[in-house]
Amino acid sequence: MPAAPAYRRLSVEERRSQLLDAALGLFAHRAPEEVSLDDVAEAAGVSRPLVYRYFPGGKQQLYEAALRSAAEELRKCFDEPLDGPLVPRLARALDRYLAFVDEHDTGFSALLQGGSVVETSRTTAIVDGVRRAAAEHILRHLAVGDPGLRLRMTVRMWITAVEAASLIWLDEGKQPPVEELRDWLVDQFVAVLSVTATRDPQTAALAERLLADG
After folding, report:
1. How far apart are CA 105 and CA 102, in angstroms?
2. How many beta carbons lie within 10 A of that of residue 138, not counting itself?
């Protein structure tokens, strides 16, 4: 008879990663206050005391760790190579961002809308860190050495619009189709740059360069 597979004890990092994956899977589709440590233990196939062993701060510590992991995934959405025209690069980044929103629908809504019983200044800072990282990525893609106030504000406002559109898209049953939403958001980015260009020479030069890129 074939030998049974040998049991392998997980390392500390492997076990922690397993618990975070289980928590993220639950937080993706349920509001944080609806998820208990027992739920996480069951999803990971371990005991509740083991969850406490790795997260002695309980649900709050586990939620913040899961949130940091999700935030890192969101940051990577905008990590696009600096090659080729800007608009296709932006579209590819939005494809990844909207795929994340689609996969983590309920959790994404709870994350951005706040109001959770486990929301703290630390969780708010984690979310804001994602927004700032996204803005830095986009400014890097714009290849502007020293972006001025109006350009920085324009990029940050557009990121806020992307978040709002994503939440509304979830509320509306993920309509319009995601490809249409992506193209619409890209068009909005070009549009807001054009508006700022009428008041800011730096953005005007950028808009002219983007137009030349096609």
Report:
1. 5
2. 22
For 4, the token pair is 């049974």
> How many C-beta atoms surround the C-beta of residue 155 within 10 A?
23
Q: How many CA atoms lie within 13 A of 199 on its CB side?
A: 10
Question: For 175-208, what is each residue's pLDDT tens digit?
Answer: 999 999 999 999 999 999 999 999 999 999 998 8
CB atoms within 10 A of CB 131: 16
Contact call for residues 63 and 158 (beta carbons, < 8 A): no
Contact 67, 111 (CB under 8 A): yes
Q: What's the distance, CA 183 to chain centroid? A: 19
15-64 pLDDT, tens digit per residue, is 888 898 888 888 877 877 888 899 999 999 999 999 999 999 888 888 88
Its pTM surpasses 0.70: yes
- Is 135 strand, coil or helix? helix
